[in-house]
Task: structure prediction
Amino acid sequence: MKLSSVDVYIDWPVVIKIKNLRDFIISNLEKKGDVIRWSIVDIQDSIDCCGTKKLKIKVVLAY
Amino acid sequence: MLMEISPTIFIVPTGIGCEIGGFAGDALPTAKLLASASGCLITHPNVMNGGTLSEKDKNIFYVEGYNLDRFAKGEIALKRVKQQKIGIIFDLAIDNEILVRHLQVADACVSTLGIDVHSYVVTKKPLNIVIDSDSSKMSSGIIKNPDALIHAGRCLIEKGVTAIAIVAKFLDDPDAPETNIYREGKGVDPISGAEAVISHLISKFLKVPCAHAPALGPIELNKNLDPRAASEEIGYTFLPSVLIGLSNAPDIVELPNINELISIHPNQIESIVVPNGALGGEGILAGIEKGLNIISVKNQNILKVSNEFFDYPNLFEVDNYLEAAGIILAMRRGITLKSIKRPLQKIQESSCSY
Result:
């Protein structure tokens, strides 16, 4: 097994409610590897006219 | 006498430079206060571990961060135990003299505190920690040989151990700017991110209570030492607090489970206390999913993930942990918060149609 610590950027569309945000993030991160540790470390508000937010996530992945 | 409890999770994320809890066990008094107010507090080792100093509290459950998030998600429950049988994993990279110091700590915890430290193993390969940090960013890091760690833990479990302490070698660089900034009460703990990864690996793959202590060489006296970092400078190792915490850490019970006696089920949790700006952790998002009360406390740190982005209605922003304790106590006693605040609004006629 190998580990890597990376910053992942995910667009958070307005249709994803806060109560579904964790599942939305996990489903994105699990495409990249086995998730050991993660958290949102920054949010940029409304990067487009649809209200999409940009999440910066610090994640440690195992391969 | 208060009979009801208001089970509460207390999180101070590691490696984000929190003014309270960003150092060596300096959130422990706060944890004791919140445990007193709630009657039942679930918190993680870096809140409780003050190097050589620590304390047990019957109202506090000591749960490693990865398992704490799983608890918040409803995947596990916790079972109180009288005593854990602790095994220790030592990183092969630890110098012999430092290793002997740690073994003497283990012996002392048996002889003086009556803790059941069963045995130890040394990893087959050095863990090789890589730290990725500077004083202005979140602490993070990895280990290059995670399999060596997991194999060592598996060996201890096969010998009957029920909880695992890990001691990993961190590079001694007392002149590193991050180290000195941290010692003087500024910046982030540079090694805490890598420490979290080490304990998360054991929790994820071996599913036992665990906690980590770094092995570091003696460090030169610093007269400008911040009091919050002082507990890390009063001994040769950080292992005592880990062994004290693990000695009666709760067992992890995978859910669903109808056979085990459960002391605290995740459905009992009412509140999560977290620093303002640090709402982006998995445990907090899981709590938001469940509609729990989130008590967001002003506790300066480097993150800005606040409720302005989430607009979560059950969030209470408070100025300090004393106020957080008051809210929890009011909830525990069934006192509505608006009755304590002024002005007090008259009740309104509901607009229901029936």
